[in-house]
Amino acid sequence: MVVNASDRWDAIVIGSGLGGLACAAYLCAAGRRTLVLEGHSVAGGNSQVFRRRVRDVEYEFDVGIHYIGECGPSGGITQIMNGVGLAERVVFRPLDPDGYSTLIFPDLEFRVPAGWDRYRERLLATFPGEAEALAKVVDTMRRVDAETRRYQDHEIPTEELAEHAPTFLAWGLRPVTELFAEHGLSQRAAAVLLGEQGDYAVRPSKTPVALAAGLTGHYMNGAYYPEGGGQVIAGRLIEAIRAYGGEVRTRARVAKVRVENGRAVGVTLARSGEEINAETVVSNADLKRTVGEIVGEEHFSAATVERVRGYTMTLPLFTAYLSIDLDLRELGVPNTNYWIWNSYDIEGHYDELESGRIPDPPIAYVSTASLKDPSNPHLAPPGQTNLQVMTLVPRDYGFWKQERGPVAEGRNRYHRDPAYRRTKEELVEGILKAAEVAVPGLREHVVWRESASPLTQERFTHSTGGTSYGVEFTCKQMGPMRMGPNTDVAGLFLCGASTPSGHGIANVLRSGVVAAGAVLDTDLISLVRGGEVLGDSAKLPELRDDWDAWRESH
Description:
By secondary structure, the chain is an alpha/beta fold. The chain has 20 helices and 18 strands. Helix 1 packs parallel to helix 10 and helix 4 packs across helix 6.
């Protein structure tokens, strides 16, 4: 759809990540005509997929959704989708409830089951000599998770935390390593408790108990994958935005938020210079670029500018996208994620990464889309398996033999650099070798492979340093230490991974609802938790068998 500068919008959302799309869907459902502007050719941010066609063979790969929780009837994701009439339009397929993730250490394999009681029981059986200590640690984490959720859902007022959330107050904001040390937990047991911590990528000594407990709790009612791939969530939100009177426009990068007399009044597009007016602007873009470039530091207080400049971004990721000529379903491979660690010293892994080195062998996370969604015809041809292998990498551009990132460079020459390409190939070889612990002989069966570095991420999403997770969720950079949804600039709001909600699919969706609530001056979270549906879902188009989320998102 072509948007004319004369069109009047009530709100503009910058960036089409799930936070921005959720915010726009709720604003539209509430009667605010909202325009989403996305610089890339496909909407969805880290939830999108990309497709490759090679000699009439099609492959489709997820950029950022590999497994999610909160998808049951009372789950947070289900409630958020339901709030704009979409709950029944996204089908979530469960992973193996007896081991949705499999942690592989040098001399131990641990299958993580859904359910706090079953999880606790399996841990105690794995470490019988530490049963008493482990029980206390797991019970504390479970209480912290429950109390944190009640507080976030506005069930516990801040002034009543001492009475109704004592465990959260005692432990939630402290490093998880202090909890482990308090009970004398061994390094082996601690590593198993943190075996999926690549989902947030924070060194243990800086990881809040609330974050570690929250990640575990997120999956305790089951881990899921959206049928049709991650793009389906974005596609359905876009469907709702359009049905409720809004629009999503791709290839429309915002250069500046226009501020007049201390108030946001609209935006200017990068290529065309087109000016689009609105009384409300919500940025789902990278926080540092929002403050420093898109809006401009001159419009924020000195304290805010100092705060944003001081934020540390989360370590970025490197991903190899593969198709192999083996059908892992026929071979009986379970529908599980694999987390492969070369030692129990997770803190040591971060020492190496933050010194600019890759651990040897590297951490490897293996996600197999073909096992999670065997009904998706786009993933790979019959007889092949679509999977991804990921690892954490250093923040420094120098690791990739570059002086600057693609945003500062203003062009995408990095991917032609022979030194950059050699670094990528060496890393692909390293993580595929590590992944063979889970998939023996993997490297011999690769028929298609492609890889993406933090520079790729920065190129397409403009995230600072190419991180997928935004501001690092450490004890000093969580909750009220973060920015959003309100800002120093009237009419300007924030959502996304760097806001207090945090990163991850459920959290960024929540950030969008929180931002929409701030715009509307309404406690939308409580309404959503109460089951209220905003907007008229009868306006949504009829479900079609040929509906394609990827095409919907262009």
